[in-house]
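Structure ticket #2291
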Amino acid sequence: MRISAVLGLALLGAASAFASGPYDPLFVPDPYFSALGAEAEPLPRADLEKAAFLASGLSYDKTLQYVSRLDAYIARLDAESASVGDPYARGEAALAFIHRNLLKAYRADATTLDGILDTGLYNCVSSAVLYMIAGRSLGLDVEAVRTSDHAFCVVHLAGRDVDVETTSPAGYDPGTKRAFTDSFGKVTGFSYVPPGDYARRSSIDDKELVGLILSNRVVIYENAGDYRASLGLGVEYYELERDAASRSFLVDRVNNLSSELVQGGDYAGAESLVTAARAALGEDPKLAELQGKVAYMRAVAAANASRWDEALDEAAALRAEGTAPPELPSLIEAALSNEIYALVQRQDFAGARRVLAARGALAGPVLSSSLSEKIGEAELAAAVNGRPFREALAAADGELAAGSVSRSAWERAEGVLYYNEANRLARSGDWLGASKLAAEGSARLGGDGNLARAASVYRSNFVADAHNRFAALYNARDFPAARDSIRSSLALMPEDPSLLADLRLVDRALGN
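Resolution: structure written out below.
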């Protein structure tokens, strides 16, 4: 079915085809572009004109008006060229005519065909479309060529092909004209790609050329931040081309609009958009990944607002759907840790354990074990803090017996309790009491090295204090008092060799 037959149809019942979601209508293709996508190549000139004006953004009624205006110029071209029999010369005449009558000034973003008729502004795409229409009206075999960032035309003549750089009035068979080489790059910023450079130029069909109008307009809309409008053009572009590249192009438009919605906090809208895209396009790995990213960002927003349960519910759904991004484990750890920390701060240890039990499968064994340890340590700290030493020990033992804390955490806590209490005794001058308590703790904890060393230091400090008291009395020649002092110390540490040496010294002084 020719597009010209379809273009006269009203859009009857189009709205009834819309699905219920707010973004579903964006993916309902324009029937004009659907019909054009089904057309065989090359397009008839009349269809090419209509397609180019529609791709430029005109309504169907406006398209008919502009087609009429353009056809008036084409009729003049045909009349002026009627006497030109040589095909090469007709192709050159077509370029000269459109530059003399229609193309006024080059501008990089002037990509629409109606823009040429209204303002005379053009770029490589719009001028290539116009030249193709003009050349075909003269019976020439005109094809479009694209490079990475440029488009032009080629006229296929008997025995040779002629390039047409449509942005320049000297662009017909440009390699033969000095005027072209002097001006083309300065005006457009492009460099001419000569025939034979197949790595840098490729032929495109009529639909692809019309599609360049759409894709250029997408760039213009997105530069202005209108991602919704650019998505509509992406749908038309895909409907026109129906290949992998145009599908990827459309998916990129979905991604850009969803990113804008997410940045504005409209996570429900972004999810609805991607759902509509998946319903319209079928399963697509990039869309599935995008839906996962949207859900992940919504979970991040919930976590940032301290809505930990909501964030974890989103994470669980992502994990179940298999669309989780690689950052998900970090989010789970942060959300679950913060929720449990908040409960621990309120000393709701039972609540913290309930949360951990409910989320254990989501957290995994390593994180679950770590958080369980932290809950136990916090509960143990709450149980012993502020209690007298022996009561605190009993409370710690009770937590261990109840299974609230691991043995390693219990040992660390008991070690701190013993060390702090021994230091308190030492600060009061009770070196031997401190040493005895540290030794008790070391034995209780299976030979704790820190406490064992502390016990030894405290004993050494007792001996040093005893010797210093003895030395002061001995040096004052108060030998009886010195002997009494060292004997009282030996009563507490009878086998210490330093104290025994002091006793022998004072005995000699006393003549014993």
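Closing remark: Residues 4 and 47 are 6 Å apart (CA to CA).
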